[in-house]
Automatic annotation (TrEMBL):
This is Cinnamyl alcohol dehydrogenase. PROSITE patterns: ADH_ZINC. Keywords: Metal-binding, Oxidoreductase, Zinc. Pfam families: ADH_N, ADH_zinc_N.
Amino acid sequence: MGSIESERTTVGWAATDPSGILSPYTFTLRNTGPDDVYIKVHYCGICHSDLHQIKNDLGMSNYPMVPGHEVVGEVLEVGPNVSRFKVGEIVGVGLLVGSCKNCRPCQSDIEQYCNKKIWSYNDVYIDGKPTQGGFAETMIVEQKFVVKIPEGMEPEQVAPLLCAGVTVYSPLAHFGLRGSGLRGGILGLGGVGHMGVKIAKALGHHVSVISSSDKKKQEALEHLGADQYLVSSDATAMQEAGDSLDYIIDTVPVGHPLEPYLSLLKLDGKLILMGVINTPLQFVSPMVMLGRKSITGSFIGSIKETEEMLEFWKEKGLRSMIEMVKMDYVNKALERLEKNDVRYRFVVDVKGSKLVDE
């Protein structure tokens, strides 16, 4: 790989302040080491958490910031210790690019729960350099955090799976909810929600989509194959559906009441939170106690789970529903995402975009 002394520069699109407007930005990649993979980015999905980060919604943003953590690209070079990947291979990179490797989560192959994990952007790498994401020409990533993509999968289809897909797959696997015949609810039909419907249906579950209005009813039932559509404000329908679900995947990324959804769960049912919400959520304790119900959370998935989920996705012949955009449309795409105006995931064609005016 390139010598340690020679730094590489690349071009990305970065936010420079909490307005979240992205524009071309040239920056230096970190030095490469023996375990690193140098990747040319082909595609990158746009996730709702990218919006939170570029707009400093969580009060932790550092600028300039190149977002993007659903990255699919081509291996350009590998370090001498890299054994899992070879030049020319199409690979993936998700939300993490580092962890301590010594703690219990790291030793248990669930490195996403490491307290010293390093985010793929808006973080600082072990060498002190800021990490930058996939809205850029190239990235350097340690091989442990690079994902193998099964042969024959379309790269632009894979991008949303590296965050949205594994975010749903991981809790279903961990909580023993993979058996067929279960009844599941998907609350919120955005990028993660649409993955939830597809994965749950492929596992043989009866799937209810729960939404705040009926505007996505036809899509949920006809295009995604859900079995039932519940409008949360329809008190009669919600009451009739009470005590019927084994689990609910709650993807809503803004504050919302939990009680209406807790009442849908059976005995020992689980409400699994996935939306990044920076305001407290409320419920009265008998809602949980009287059905031995759990409110829990889950965070993305490990590299191991991601690779397992990609194999599952390929085996079942599933497809993501994506809208491809070029980088010069990315600000409009983010604006539309904020209004939930996307079916169901934007994917930026980085390879086919002119990242900087000549």
